[in-house]
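User: Could you check the structure of this?
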Amino acid sequence: MMTVLLIVYVILGPLAWIGLCVVSGFATVRMSRLHAHRATLTEPPTLTVIVPARNEAAAIESCVDHILGQDTKGFELIVVNDRSTDATGEILDELSRTRPRLGVIHVTELPAGWVGKTHALHVATREVTTEWVLFVDSDVTLSQDAVGRSLGLCVHRNYDALSLLPRIDARTFWEKLLLAPMAFCWSSTFAISLTNDDSKKNHAFANGQFFLMRRGWYEKVGNHESVKDQVCEDVWLMLALKRAGATVRFQIGTQLAGVRMYASLKQLYNGWARIFAGTRARNPWPMVGAIVFMLLCVTSIVPAISAAIVAGGLWWAAVAVHAAVLLAYASWMYRSSGQSAAYALLLPMVVPFVIAILSHAIGICRTGKVVWRGGAVDVARSKP
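Assistant: Sure, the predicted structure tokens are below.
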């Protein structure tokens, strides 16, 4: 009986994690094209950069000047003041008087059936005539060559859309501890690297924090109006582009962009649950699968240690391999996210938090309600 249990444990513990490490390695290579591409464009195509801003008075001037300081010249910048209740609108109007490439649009109402950010982006693109359009969140920090290198990759590789996974700029203990595991959990649960497999027409993901695409394809799939009720509109828009025949890519862009996603544990808890629930229109089964994987393939080491104390021998060897692979994977995960590998030692503390967030996401799949930015947000069940 102990032999059978040992075989089951080896499959669910050490071998499962070794398999995940191998798959993650291939996925990382598939999403690392930007690391090697540094060619620039002597004559870049026309481009409009669009930034949605809501109550960003404290940082909007820095955001505008940061984007306008890109080494790619000739592009236009449009910032959408999305129903701000602070001085964001007034600051943008003042900035536009001294920055000729800056256009400002004020949105004062949110029509029924729309998500706020999606509506703001839709309004901003109505008069855009450039060949390319780039959507960037106001809290994203770009390297000076981020736009040029991304656009250059698309032109040279003939890509029609490109989205980036930015660097996670964590500051507090909870951000440093949990953001990397949640990001890796999301990418593994939904196998996001398959976005770059052109044969997988029904598999595509994106990150709206940095989303570049040809305007012709954007309009062909119905622009943001086609995903107006989706909290993860970026994912569904990328999927629509791929299904329509566009060549799309999702790349690791940690060297080009950084973002502080959530400033508090409460924001992190609600924000990631919203992302998981919205990624597949309130389908709970990916989160159920992720929880089962963690319960079987992570926490199984606890009863295995008990068995090793009783039976010894091969049980200790299996436990040692399991612990080593877990520690190696967690260390790589944190280092890849710009954090200290020492956080890997706190993995037993991380797993309950990840399971709690996934459970919250399952609850959102059932109710469709999540608290976000001080109010209740509806997560649509219907697919675009």
